Amino acid sequence: MEENITVQTQVAFHNLNGLIRGIAMDGRITKSEFDAIKSWCQTHDGLCDEDPFKSLHSEIIEKIKTGILGSEEIHEINDILNRYAPEFEEKDKVKADLHFLQGICYGIMADGDINKYELNLLQKWLDDNYHLSDQYPFNEITEVVKKVIDVGKIGHEEYNFLVQYFKEFLKID
To answer: What's the 3-state SS for the chain?
Structure first.
């Protein structure tokens, strides 16, 4: 696999892994979250010329082709991701973790809602990955999440602040 394609497939893998984690955080899977996974598949279709990405991609498509995405399917997708993880290991663990974090944030936003439970789970992930504390945007996201959690509720102002920040981080319009 050419170097550029390798990097692209690694990034795509870690983004998907984080996306699935973010989607599963609140314990419910909505149509828009299903659509986010479907969109990931469509977006990365061009990387499917060679294995292992080709096989990973087809297994993910197989899991979502019924249009049903529940906790069982999420569990099965996690099993697939765990099985392929060694194939997409990045030399730079920090970059891999930041790509994963980007996926988590996208997964949290995929249903159009950011709730306190998801933020607490995100905070736990941030705490568990403190080795990233001096990395941008990890350090900034940690600050933003802590600020909202410290308020104690996600009111209109806090919600808009988080949405705007996540969109900037994810480069979404």
So the answer is: CCHHHHHHHHHHHHHHHHHHHHHHCCCCCCHHHHHHHHHHHHHCHHHCCCCCHHHHHHHHHHHHCCCCCCHHHHHHHHHHHHHHHHHHCCCCHHHHHHHHHHHHHHHHHCCCCCCHHHHHHHHHHHHHCHHHCCCCCHHHHHHHHHHHHHHCCCCHHHHHHHHHHHHHHHCCC
Per residue in 111-133, pLDDT (tens digit) is 988 999 999 999 999 999 999 99
Q: Where are the domains of the chain?
A: 3-170
- Per-residue pLDDT at 158 exceeds 50: yes
Q: Global pTM?
A: 0.91
